[in-house]
Specification:
With 405 residues, this protein is α+β, with helices and mostly antiparallel strands. 49% of the residues lie in helices and 11% in strands. It folds into 2 domains: 207 residues, no CATH class; 165 residues, no CATH class.
Amino acid sequence: MEGKAGESEFGKVFSNTGKLVKANLKTFAVSAVLFFALYSFLYGLWLLPVVNFGFTRMSAVGLVDIAYLLAITIMSGTLLTLMRQKIKLASSTSKLGGIGGTFAGFVAAACPVCQGITLAALGSTVAFIPLGALSSFVWLMQLVALFVLWIAVYMTSVSVYKSNCVTCDVEQKVKTFSVPSGSHLLDNNKFFASLVVVTILVVANQFLLSGSGLVTASSGGTITLAEGFNYGPKLTLKPMPLAVSEQPNIAGYKSIVKTLPTISELEMAPPTGDVVQDLINNIVPKGTPWYGQEAGVSFDDPVKALDLWGRADSVKLSPEQEERWNRITGSFTCDFCCGSPQNPTIITRCGCAHAGAAKGIARWFIQNYGDKYSDEEIYGEMSRWFASWYPGPMVKRIAQEMGIN
């Protein structure tokens, strides 16, 4: 297929590509539809039916995203059509631009979708990739993806054109893009190999620059931020005194953040890609727990709850219950009011309102539900209320131990 007289080599390649796509319109249309389905799935626009498996984006899809999806769909469809033609021709002129270009193009096209996505299945979170820190650079990744995919299309187009037009000699030297050897930069194996490496690094960066790695979640919705840092509907986090021979996460501290089971069950907010914001959304409790009406308390009114729980500190317990109460409260720390990480204060030695309220919580649950819940669960529920009374300091402390400033 020869181009028009006087037409530039680039124009001839472009014209030849258009003719091939038109001649193989069915192949292009089917591949474009399949690619759009794939990319829109990765972008979180839809889930697999029945099992509800797929990605849930934590950022809105705008017109730019739709335009990007259409662009990579068209280029990917074109690339697949050209590759099919190339296989037919069994071109001997195929270089790294053919195979490597296809690989780099397809991988790069999918790259920018990972900007804070949740992998969901059967209605529950399976894994979360917290990449909110990269959200400001998604446009750059999209440009890189488009550029790499365009190179893949162009190099494959040139290769197919050379095979189609045996009497033509595509100019090997371009004024703007040239290398010392005189060969076309896009046909230079070293250049394209470097471009593939850059593409792979861009993909890797999306997983490594998130700050905390992959956040996984069980079918019950438990979120694992890092080793030892878990929270969920019935799990919370709080500093606890160091055990014998236990080492702190931060030098000089005499307490360490640990995961604790709770009595109340919270509905977990969807991940945002920002670990600190997720802690605020899920560690700081909201709503009224199942025992709220009976006790007269609500997480939405922590001040009133502070007063009511404080009154419960006068609840009378049996000697056995009193022993259990001493065991629970004897290691519970008042971390932000009367104590500090370097010198935590046990609530039984503290006279502040928060310490009194925490002691009241322990008495109330031991008296009313002592046969149903363990010491650890009561301890965890006290911790949940401390997060309600000290939301900022609690989240800051957890983030600090995770190395997040």
